[in-house]
């Protein structure tokens, strides 16, 4: 009882004349007669005329979008994705370079600590003053700091130093050291004997590395 719609078409002229429009012919599935336009039943056998299915519309056409527009949008997306990818690679290289610089700096700091670095403040001042004065002793490699106080101006040291004498015996004497010069103090005050503000153990480890070990 359904109508059969075919792809053939016929032309009819408008009553106003001149302009032609395409009309799809529809035929009754029961008797094969052509339906009369506007009729609700077949004029030949009386079968009801089924309602026409709405014409399928092209979504892109309704939105006034053509294929070229779609292609341009896809190309733009691809370009954007490529730019993001290139930036990601560049950032990765930057991160690697920064990491390498940090590692290089850390290696330099560690190396400096092993060559007399790692001392700060008064400890560093005391180490450098004792190191400069060590050649004045009979056995420079035996020089070790026992106690001391750095001067207010950070350019001198009141200290007790242990070192071996000419007979090979280790003795402790008190000295005033400044600019490579060393003066022996026979009656030392607390400036020479205090150890509260110097890390003598750490200083002596650095002296051992710099002067040698004959302690």
Write up this protein:
It is built from 5 helices and 6 strands. The protein has 215 residues and is of the alpha+beta class. It has a 4-stranded antiparallel beta sheet. The protein has a two-stranded antiparallel sheet with strand order 1-2. Strand 4 and strand 5 (170-178) form a beta hairpin. Helix 3 (121-133) packs parallel to helix 5 (200-211). It is rod-shaped.
Short summary:
With 215 residues, the chain is α+β, with helices and mostly antiparallel strands. It contains five helices and six strands.
Low-pLDDT ranges: 1-16
Largest sheet: 4 strands, antiparallel
Report the β-strand fraction as a percent range: 15-25%
Backbone structural class:
alpha+beta
Tell me roughly what share of residues is in helical segments: 25-40%
Number of helices, where a helix is a run of at least 4 consecutive DSSP H or I residues:
5
Distance N to C terminus: 119 Å
List the helices and strands and how they pair.
Elements: E1 4-13, E2 20-27, H1 59-62, H2 67-114, H3 121-133, E3 144-150, E4 156-164, E5 170-178, E6 181-185, H4 190-193, H5 200-211
Antiparallel strand pairs: 1-2, 3-4, 4-5, 5-6
List keywords for this structure.
disordered N terminus; four-stranded antiparallel β-sheet; 38% helix; 5 helices; alpha+beta; 215 residues; two-stranded antiparallel ribbon
């Amino acid at each position: 009882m359904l109508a059969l719609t075919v792809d053939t078409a016929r032309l009819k002229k408008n009553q106003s004349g001149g302009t032609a429009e395409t009309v799809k012919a529809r035929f009754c599935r029961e008797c094969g007669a052509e339906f009369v336009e506007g009729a609700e039943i077949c004029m030949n056998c009386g079968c009801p005329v089924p309602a026409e299915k709405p014409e399928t519309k092209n979504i892109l056409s309704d939105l006034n979008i053509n294929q070229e527009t779609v292609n341009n949008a896809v190309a733009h997306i691809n370009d954007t994705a490529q730019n993001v990818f290139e930036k990601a690679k560049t950032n990765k290289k930057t991160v690697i370079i920064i990491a390498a610089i940090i590692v290089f700096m850390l290696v330099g700091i560690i190396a400096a600590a092993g060559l007399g670095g790692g001392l700060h403040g008064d400890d560093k001042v005391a180490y450098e003053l004792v190191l400069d004065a060590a050649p004045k002793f009979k056995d420079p490699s035996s020089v070790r700091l026992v106690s001391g106080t750095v001067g207010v101006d950070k350019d001198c040291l009141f200290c007790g130093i242990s070192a071996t004498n000419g007979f090979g015996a280790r003795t402790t004497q008190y000295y005033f050291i400044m600019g490579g010069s060393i003066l022996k103090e026979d009656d030392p005050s607390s400036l020479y004997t205090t150890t509260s503000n110097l890390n003598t153990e750490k200083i002596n480890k650095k002296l051992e590395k710099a002067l040698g070990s004959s302690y």
